[in-house]
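Lecture notes, part 5. Sequence design as translation. It can be helpful to think of inverse folding as translation between two languages: the language of shapes and the language of residues. The source text, in structure tokens, appears below.
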């Protein structure tokens, strides 16, 4: 059940409970007032009935009890009876509280589902590494297919992992080519096949977000590259810059491919034309998810795979 349907169900349930509560209280109030009056009036009338002379003492005792009940009911009615606006305010408060609890539960469910998908991705990637360790790396063509398959695992869950729907997205693996001294794209996935199969730019260490992530051995992330402070870092230099870069690459994550304490051997890149698809987890973020974590997982397993290939 989605959160909107849950809100409707909670609202109806709260309204039903409040209506039952109002009916119950009004019934008690009316019974106290009416019962007290009946008891007082009835005892007074019966005390004057000659045939009940033997019970007059008891009836006289009941008469003030009835008055006390009637008075108590009136006071009770005065203090706890509420107007319609007050009832509506209480109902709205109860509904808002229920919705807040439902929202928290919804976030926890979303976080759990997200973490389960990240865990599954990590397991699939580890199985590929273990397969290479047992069976060997194969030739260059087989290695390239393996890189593409590992990217496919990431892309298959892009909606859950990154919230991508109709984005103009891009995921790519760059490896450092010692012969050219540049980072070359060895695998790429894009929503348009022609763009995916086109020739991709290579990056020198320290140039562009790919080269900076490689040179510094640090994850480079921008939630919105249109912000002035981000442009200097993510703008490609003249000769490598395309006219649609600003619109196309609004959110970027570049993660070095490296084993712990070793120099990078490449970079995994994720981009989107929608801001905030990638950002470092913020301390005050309600969600426990880190949008860059799936790319880190891919980068780590690629590092282990490449280490086995060149061992």
């Amino acid at each position: 059940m989605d959160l909107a349907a849950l809100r409707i169900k909670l609202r109806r349930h709260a309204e039903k409970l409040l209506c039952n509560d109002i009916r119950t209280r009004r019934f008690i109030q009316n019974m106290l007032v009416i019962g007290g009056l009946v008891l007082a009036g009835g005892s007074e009338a019966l005390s004057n009935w000659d045939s009940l002379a033997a019970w007059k003492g008891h009836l006289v005792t009941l008469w003030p009890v009835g008055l006390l009940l009637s008075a108590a009911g009136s006071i009770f009615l005065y203090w706890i009876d509420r107007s319609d606006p007050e009832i509506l305010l209480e109902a709205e408060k109860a509904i808002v509280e229920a919705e807040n609890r439902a929202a928290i539960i919804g976030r926890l469910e979303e976080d759990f589902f997200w973490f389960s998908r990240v865990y599954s991705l990590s397991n699939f990637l580890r199985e590929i590494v273990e397969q290479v360790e047992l069976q060997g790396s194969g030739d260059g063509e087989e290695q390239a297919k393996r890189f593409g398959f590992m990217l496919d695992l990431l892309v298959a869950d892009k909606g859950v992992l990154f919230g991508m729907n109709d984005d103009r997205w891009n995921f790519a693996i760059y490896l450092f080519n010692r012969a050219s001294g540049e980072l070359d794209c060895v695998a790429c996935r894009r929503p348009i096949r022609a763009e995916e199969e086109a020739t991709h730019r290579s990056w020198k260490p320290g140039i562009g977000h790919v080269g900076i992530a490689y040179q510094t051995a640090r994850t480079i992330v921008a939630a919105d590259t249109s912000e002035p402070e981000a442009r200097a870092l993510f703008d490609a230099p003249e000769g490598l810059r395309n006219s649609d870069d600003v619109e196309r690459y609004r959110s970027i994550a570049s993660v070095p491919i490296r084993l712990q304490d070793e120099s990078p051997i490449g970079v995994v890149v994720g981009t989107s034309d929608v801001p905030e698809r990638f950002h470092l987890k913020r301390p005050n973020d309600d969600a426990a998810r880190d949008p860059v974590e799936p790319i880190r997982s891919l980068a780590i397993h690629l590092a282990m795979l490449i280490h086995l290939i060149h061992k």
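The translated text above is only one of many valid answers, since several sequences can fold into similar shapes. Residues 3-81 form one domain.
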